Amino acid sequence: MLQFLANSLSSPMVHGPLLFLILQLLSRIVPKGKRVYQWLSCLPILWVFFCSLVYPSVLLIKPLEDQYPTVKVSSKLWQNADAIVVLACNHFDDEGLPFVSRWPQCTMQRNLHAALMYKEKHLPIHLAAGILNELDSASQAHYNKTFLMTLGVSPNDIYTHLQGHDTESEVDALAPHLKNKYVALVTSASHLPRAVQYFELHGIKVLPIPVEHLSRKNVSFTIGLPNAFSLYRSERAIHEYLGLIYQRYFK
């Protein structure tokens, strides 16, 4: 239930108008404090505007993305690992689309980086996740295996675990196969703080490999118009903060 709410309400375009309507409703049904609720109802609108701007949205996500340093493909750090783990994101099961159009950026970057790592050193790659969408004909792990094979990874070095529908359940599916192993964990930069915690709960040592950064390393103040990508960046950050709250206080 809590996960469903977090997934549903993480977008400012959802929770912002919802809070506005709730406060407007309270201003009409609560006899005392009518004007206070009317003034408070302006805050969700300002929040949506704030989230739609480049600089504020970067400030939201940057603390998540900067928790772990970038690890280059050529680095020796990850080559001491026993295996590479790539966490799932999504896939569009539409044969009418070109191959590259079937993958959102999160999946594309995670898989591509893992394939480049494999090219540098042939380590086993572990994938997890079952069927994530109603229209999918196969598991997410299967789709990601296909992606990696297309980029030259040997199928003999890919281990798929066909369970999991979110980060927690994916790690639960992977953990029995990674006991006493040192793992290079590839996932989105903002996703890593939460993902690392789940592996550590299972006693698995990981080297975080961040990809899909939605902010630059060096950021300067900028004024720009509201835009959809900034809203998306804010949504990703809020989703992870809610996930961390769930992980810390409800697990």
Automatic annotation (TrEMBL):
The uppermost taxa in this organism's lineage are:
Bacteria, Pseudomonadati, Pseudomonadota, Gammaproteobacteria, Alteromonadales
Q: What is this protein called?
A: Membrane protein
Entry keywords, A to Z: Membrane, Transmembrane, Transmembrane helix
The alphabetized list of GO BP terms reads: Gram-negative-bacterium-type cell wall biogenesis; peptidoglycan metabolic process
Q: Which domain of life is it from?
A: Bacteria
Residues in domain DUF218?
82-243
Q: Which organism is it from?
A: Paraglaciecola chathamensis
| Record field: transmembrane | 12-30, 42-61
Q: What are the annotated GO cellular component locations?
A: plasma membrane
Pfam families in the record: DUF218 (PF02698)
